[in-house]
Amino acid sequence: MDEFIQGFWNFAGNYWWLIFPIMGMAGGAAKAWEQGSKRRHERRLETLRMKAQLKTAEIEARALTQQAKRRGPSVVDTTASVAPNDLVARLFAEHDEITARWLDYELDVAKLIAFPAMSDGRQPLTAAFLRAKKTADALRPASAEAKVSEQQITEYLQAVGDYAVAFEIAEKDARRLRDSTFTEPERKRLERAQQLLKVAVDESATQAERNVAYKRVREELDGLILLSDDAVTVLEKQVARELPAGAAAAPASAADSAPGTAPEPERMPIADPLRPAPPRTQPRDEA
Q1: CA–CA distance from 4 to each of 12, 15, 16, 17, 257 (Å)?
Q2: Residues 6+ apart with CB under 8 A from 187
Q3: Is this model's pTM higher than 0.85 or not?
């Protein structure tokens, strides 16, 4: 070992000047890597722009095709201009379709637990989608019959194209990530919340059981996934859904008809977490 160290220092003493070309090579490699990373980023941005342009062209082509079908020509005239109202109506339909796909995640707690990145604005692609949504909503005309300029239609067309592409990219990324951004204990909490959610919306469970499961779902998700007010409202309606008629009476009659079976002990009532507890009453003093 000592001989190796001594040999190293002898080599370094004789060839110390090699440090300068080595440093130059390292600096060139670092600069090349930085430039390559920048080019990759620029290519990704260019890909997104191309996808958005293709989407807007697709929307415009659909509107043109529908217009041609209403007029009944044998061959679609691709040089014809699309009527503004027809194009705006097509943009409205595309805009609403994307929003409906987003709400399918936003209002479905089970999907939010499975793909939490779709509700996490800290994720870059989700944040980009939310910005695109805000822009498209702001540029949307009041109605398809509203008087809008050609510039407004062009801007709205581009915004809807960006909105569609941003959603598709964010959705693919959320499905790729799933719960990988959470720690192991957090993933276990999400798994428990998913299991409890099945009980909370199960029509075969009692109302008390669904209420308790709902409360525990909220506790497990606290600090992990922020549920919107609309999502909470939808979930509470599912939890408060009444049992089918006769569902509670069927098990009781089956137990009564079974010979030699002892009746089940009466289950203690479980407090409803959605309702305030009734005030306690003082016991009467016996005379």
Answers
A1: 12, 16, 17, 21, 91
A2: 179
A3: no
Does 109 fall in a domain?
Answer: yes
Domain end residue (candidates: 153, 181, 209):
181
Q: Are residues 172 and 106 in the same domain?
A: yes
d(Cα 55, Cα 143) in Å, to the nearest integer?
A: 22
Look at residue 25 and tell me whether its pLDDT is greater than 80.
no
Q: What is the helix (H) or strand (E) element at residue 232, kind and residue range?
A: helix 229-239
- In the structure encoding, which two tokens stand for residue 239, read together? 């939890």
Q: Kindly report, residue by residue over 247-276, the tens digit of the pLDDT.
A: 444 444 444 444 444 444 333 343 444 444
Q: In which residue are the tokens 């440090």 written?
A: 19
- The alpha carbons of the chain give a radius of gyration, in whole angstroms, of 32
Residue pLDDT, tens place only, 170-192: 999 999 999 999 999 999 999 99
Task: Tell me the C-alpha distance between 90 and 142, whole Å.
Answer: 14
Identity of residue 236? E
The mean per-residue pLDDT over the stretch 31-60 comes to 59
